[in-house]
Amino acid sequence: MLALLQQLRDQKLIENIDYYFADYIARQGQSQTEAINDLAALFAALLSFANQQGHSCLFLTKNVLENPFELKYQPEQQALLQQIEDLLAPYDVKALLANLVQHPAFSMNDQQNTPIVCKKIGEIDALYFHRIWKDEHYIAARLSESRPIHYQQNELTDLKQILQALFPHSQHLPDWQKIAVATAFSSTISFISGGPGTGKTTTVAKLLLGLQWLQQIRKQPWLNIRLAAPTGKAATRLTESLHQAIQNIHLPLDLSSTLPQEAATIHRLLGMRPNIPPRYHQQQPLNIDVLVIDEASMINLALMATLLRGIKPSTKLIFLGDKDQLASVESGAIMAELGQFLSFDYSRQQAAFLATVCEQQVAFSNELNFIRDSLCHLQHSYRFNQNTGIGQLAKAVNQRQAEESWQLFAEYNDIRVLPLFRPGEASNQQVVDFAVELYSDYFKFVQSEKNWQPVAIAKAFMLFKQARLLSALRNGQFGVEQLNQRIAEQLRRKKYIRFQHVHEWYLGKPVIILQNDNNSRLFNGDIGLVLPDKNGDLKVWFEAEQGFREVLSSRVPSVEPAYVMTVHKSQGSEFTRTVLVLPAEYNPLLSKELIYTAITRAKQTFTVFSREAIWKAAVRTQTQRYSGLAQQIKQIFKEKESEDVIKGNSGIE
Predict the structure, then answer these.
(1) To 10 degrees, the CA torsion angle through 16, 274, 316, 249?
(2) Which residues are paired to 522 by β-bridges?
(3) Which of 326, 403, 382 is nearest to 596 (CA)?
């Protein structure tokens, strides 16, 4: 088996880590029969392969067994596929599990410290890395602790008055922003999902002001509130947008001073550093009353588990995100998993609460589901109306309407497609030329400016942020790495920039930070520009809470050019003009979530380089991440309901 896996690795069909993990598992089972050890090595590699694709587990389904390592659709790999099929032929799923658990690396008991655990997720058997199972199960258990907050009659009257003041004129019914605020008031954990322009930040600003207002009415101390996001860029944007939202909210009393002035990364909030346990953990949790987490769709399983372990169970948690965006690069798709519960109605009790405090009518059922009662999806976009192509395109893509979405490019002026040709007929030169023109205003200003005072730094950032190229891939002709290099070379030929080597810190160079560095206060995803200081010395400038700050290039952590960035890296950002580059051939990484995320970065115009067939194939493809989170939450609720029935307690006051 290891020889076969080595062939897969040599042909780059699996990663080195997949092979070496299988080798490690095989060495643990040297006392087992060859058949059992071969099975263990194969499924160790399959589990590692699945984890690399973002799955938190490996479902032992017919599809997985018939298409290991996604070889089924690769004609040139049929001989390797046949060898794996011959090994699996004698077994059904039940027999597979019976044999695997005989191996010392596999166990059905998560109390045993084996590398791999076998678990039942609903009716499906699944394999997990032990650590990932622990994280996913802990997250499910913590989220299942979400319970309704019960208010006395006089407090309900206060809540109603607060919501009336926060939302004096509900122009769209139902008013989902108002419902979201009321939902968060009613639950210890809440998730507010919404697409671009639906007002997530405005909603949370009103929510935080409302929470502090209620504290004042109760004559209780101000709540200790913190703001956080997965990346430094997202944290900065949350800080800026929240301040702006608060300025536009007019209340009879000023509560803005009681709110936090700055958001932090989750890593900084918890005191997380590489290879060192977090400062805040289950035995020493962070002592705060309310925590708001933005861009929740970017949070992977491990980070979410660390976050939930690092705060008190009594802390009110408010997650903001877009359930339809790309999930985290690492394993897990938490927002998408929880989004499944939006297909259910609110409980009768929650509907009655919403009718009382915000005078909004919502569909309800007699079934009690605390997670559903903790969710709200904002559905009205204040940025894109029916006359904007960007909004219509995002909607069509999200609904996987491939034909309709392609046709929209001919109907609206704010979206356009620039077709790519087949491989060999055209290079990426057309993309490079387009990029040079796109950034020409920025480089013309940088070249001509002589007085580098703060106002000039601000203008440079404004010009560069006007537009951005996004790529679906890192590698290949239309990937980030090649495009960044070719764009820099073309800019040099046009005499916009001067350098001997692309790695130099030349005037005007845009860079993106690739790793967190607490010492320099620079974080993954931060964008910097190489510009002169007032003395004419080149520094790397970054946006700060108050203006901009300069950093010596020697103190800047790992970077790459930022002419083009991956769609993943663009999450949490918005650009006046957004340009997406798709490859000339289909790639499994293409999906409707990736396309949707790119479209929703655009504020005014969206352009895509793509062949029609590639676009339509991507829009039809929905990301499927194997996870047991939603099913575990359902199972925990079912068990708790059974306990309540036995105790004669419905759980509702």
Answers:
(1) -100
(2) 517
(3) 326
Neighbouring CB atoms inside 10 A of 37's CB total: 21
114-133 in b/e burial notation, b at 16+ Cβ within 10 A? Answer: bbbbbbebeeebbbbbbebb
What's the pLDDT at 284? Answer: 94
Q: Secondary structure of 117-179 in the HEC alphabet? A: EEEEECCEEEEEEHHHHHHHHHHHHHHCCCCECCCCHHHHHHHHHHHHHHCCCCCCCCCHHHH
CA distances from 335 to 97, 590, 598, 608 (A): 31, 20, 18, 27
209, 213, 216, 218: CA torsion to nearest 10: -130
- Which amino acid is it at 179? I
Q: What is the pLDDT of residue 648?
A: 47
pTM: 0.85
Contacts of 477 (CB under 8 A, 6+ apart): 423, 427, 428, 583, 584
Residue 548 burial (CB < 10 Å; 0-12/13-18/19+)? middle
Residues facing 116 on adjacent strands: 106, 129
CB of 383 closer than 8 Å to CB of 603: yes
DSSP state of 55: -
Q: Is 595 helix (H, G, I), strand (E, B) or coil?
A: helix
User: Is residue 193 a contact partner of residue 335, using CB atoms and an 8 Å limit?
Assistant: yes
Q: How many CA atoms lie within 13 A of 598 on its CB side?
A: 30
DSSP, res 223: P
Rg (CA), the chain: 26
Q: pLDDT below 50 — which residues of the chain?
A: 422, 645, 648-653
pLDDT at res. 528: 93
- Taking residue 650's Cβ as centre, other Cβ atoms within 10 Å add up to 11
Instruction: Give pLDDT, residue 649.
Output: 42
Burial class (CB in 10 A: 0-12, 13-18, 19+), 91: middle
pLDDT value of position 330: 76
Both structure tokens of 413: 């002026």
What is the per-residue pLDDT for 653? Answer: 39
Burial label, 36 (beta-carbon count in 10 A; 0-12, 13-18, 19+): middle
Bridge partners (DSSP) of residue 512 are 527, 560
For 275-322, the DSSP string reads TB--SS-SSS-B--SEEEE--GGG--HHHHHHHHHTB-TTSEEEEEE-
User: How many DSSP H helices and E strands does the chain contain?
Assistant: 25, 22
Inter-residue contact 315 to 340 (CB < 8 Å): no
CA separation (Å) from 34 to 37, 39, 155, 359? 5, 9, 68, 68
For 45, 82, 268, 499, the CA distances from 99, given in Å and listed in that order, are 16, 21, 45, 61
At position 325, the amino acid (one-letter code) is Q
For residue 84, the SS3 value is helix
Angle between helices 153-166 and 200-218 (to 10 degrees): 140
Q: How far apart are the first and last CA of the chain?
A: 59
* Residue-level pLDDT at 650: 36
Q: Report d(CA 49, CA 96) in Å as an integer.
A: 19
Q: Are 513 and 557 in contact (CB under 8 A)?
A: yes
Predicted pLDDT at 426: 56
